Amino acid sequence: MHWTIDPSHSRIEFSVKHMAIATVRGHFRNFTFDAETNARGELLSLAASIDATSIDTNAEQRDAHLRSPDFLDAANHPTLEFRSTRITRSGKNDYDVEGTLTIRGLPRPVQLQVVQSDAVRDPWGNQRVAAEVTGKLSRKDWGLTWNQALELGGVLVGDEVKFSIDVQAVAREAAAVA
Questions:
Q1: What is the mean pLDDT of the chain?
Q2: What is the set of domains in the chain, with CATH numbers?
Q3: How do residues 89-117 score in pLDDT, each as one tens digit?
Q4: CA angle, corner 123, sides to 170 and 50, nearest 5?
Q5: Taking a C-beta distance cutoff of 8 angstroms, is the pair 94, 114 a contact?
């Protein structure tokens, strides 16, 4: 079965250390997410496309810097793309997902952990499923190395980026009928 995102019930968030003492959190406002499951509801594939210009950390000056060539270079690379390459079931509804994440035109491997809900039928007759996706990456793997050294040691922006994705999806066949 093919599933497509319900954007009003989905969110992609990230966090990174700032000045080695605090955590800055943000999210992307615009993205698509598609998944496929077999007849038993087991996850077979995942794909996502994220609008780089929709980054939002609640600070316009910082967001503009994140869209600049120092980071995402959104003018030349307007999307971040993810495609699963291998999915291993690790529990009843738990999966380890390997895939390729492309940022700034550079494809690199990433690993995700996915916890999927069982499918339910909504009040309008559509089948729905949800998933919680977590992972982390190193900015350096994509050449995102902009930084500033701090006077007392450390750097302004941490290398590790953690992300958390909450997705609710509707069966594509049902979505087309609705």
A1: 92
A2: 2-177 (2.40.128.110)
A3: 999 999 999 999 999 999 999 999 999 99
A4: 25
A5: yes
Residues 20-31: b if buried by 16+ CB within 10 A, e if exposed = eeeebebbbeeb
For residues 171 and 141, is the Cβ–Cβ distance under 8 A?
no
Length of the chain: 178
Determine contact, residues 59/40, Cβ cutoff 8 Å.
Answer: no
CA 136 to chain CA centroid, nearest Å = 10
Paired residues of 133 in beta bridges: 114, 165
What whole-number distance in Å separates Cα of residue 49 and Cα of residue 31?
A: 6
Q: How far apart are CA 110 and CA 82, in angstroms?
A: 9
Identify the helix (H) or strand (E) that includes residue 60. Answer: helix 60-67
Structure tokens at 44: 């077979």
- Strand 79-89 to 55-56 pairing: unpaired
How far apart (Å, rounded) are the C-alpha atoms in residues 46 and 173?
A: 17
- Are 110 and 99 in contact, with CB atoms under 8 Å apart? yes
CA separation for the pair 148, 154 (Å, rounded):
9
* pTM for the whole structure: 0.89
